[in-house]
Amino acid sequence: MFKASTVFFPSVAAMRSREWKHKTGYTYGLHGTPTSYLLEERLATLEGGLQTLLVPSGLSAIALASLSLLAQGDEVLLPDNVYGPSKALAEGELKDWGISHQFYDPMDPRDLARRITDRTRLVWLEAAGSVTLEFPDLPELLRICRAAPQVRVALDNTWGAGLAFNAFDIAPGLGVDLTAHALTKYPSGGGDVLMGSVVTRDEALHLRLKNTHMRLGLGVGMNDVEAVLRSLPSIALRYAAHDRSARRLARWCLDRTEFSQVLHPAFPDAPGHAHWKAVCGGSSGADQTLEGRAAGLFSVMFDARHASAQVDAFCDALRLFKLGYSWGGPVSLVVPYDLNTMRERWPAHLKPGTLVRFSVGLEAVEDLQADLEQALRHVS
Ligand SMILES: *Cc1c(COP(=O)(O)O)cnc(C)c1O
């Protein structure tokens, strides 16, 4: 493993001739070492791109893309169900720096089309949506963005992880310009590393992002890179295992009267199910609990007759599901959310109630199901 801040050069001539922008010129730890170059190459391959930049967290990947591609007077469009801290960045620093934003309805492509103007420079996509897991019509959203040549399209690829679909080839001739990925989740897989990546296919775009990356000093630690390199070879197996367990538990939840809705894109009545099928390989007819690919997340809507205190009691009563943020690690997690504080308006496809999101880990499904069952006894 190559760990360094300082890199020794054999001669002044070598020092002067090495160019930090190219991987052949290993110059200073902040710009990476052969160890991080290896992870960058593997992530580009995983996501179907050509170049990767590593950053200290998934959120800094989002920030890097926005700070690099937006300037005063520009506008960025975000889906209303975007990852929460990304919304906070738009409402905080971006706004302070004269960059405006609008939130579009990810399930209504016409709403996106109406909001694109000459000032729009960046459109963020997220599939499935954060917390509520709607799957948008990615090909249609991309077609709308492509009709405006000044618009760059970025996708938060954390849910799909490069495994559920190829963001750079979503439909023939149609792909995003860049992906931001919280490596904290599935690529790390351990719940013990924070890291993010920005993957691109276009060299000029990569260089623009790389310049910003350098100027902001967004280097990563090589011990963390090594941890992700060790986990990455098992990502496909782990992703499939999380997916399988999540669908079995979500299916079990369908029969529980406490829940008015179970939100998982592979389920036929989930918002955007047809779009998920088209992009993630689900097929109708066969067993919908096995077809296609999805992450190990699902949410339930506790029927509105349950007070939020009862929902809190349910979450507190869970033993295997731990209360905690993030996902993609071995331990199952649960978080209750107050959607009213998170969305511009209550999404039309959601019933009233209190939402709880589960991230399914790698424990035995039977044990997780028993845990849900015992905790539900605390609700009534
Ligand atoms: C977790 C997450 C992020 C941010 O990742 P961090 O490494 O925690 O900063 C971004 N987007 C999505 C969809 C996430 O789930």
Automatic annotation (TrEMBL):
Its cofactor is pyridoxal 5'-phosphate. InterPro entries: Cys/Met-Metab_PyrdxlP-dep_enz, Cys_b_lyase_bac, PyrdxlP-dep_Trfase, PyrdxlP-dep_Trfase_major, PyrdxlP-dep_Trfase_small. One of its GO terms (biological process) is transsulfuration. Gene3D superfamilies: Aspartate Aminotransferase, domain 1, Type I PLP-dependent aspartate aminotransferase-like (Major domain). Keywords: Lyase, Pyridoxal phosphate. Belongs to the trans-sulfuration enzymes family. This is Cys/Met metabolism pyridoxal-phosphate-dependent enzyme. It comes from Hylemonella gracilis ATCC 19624.
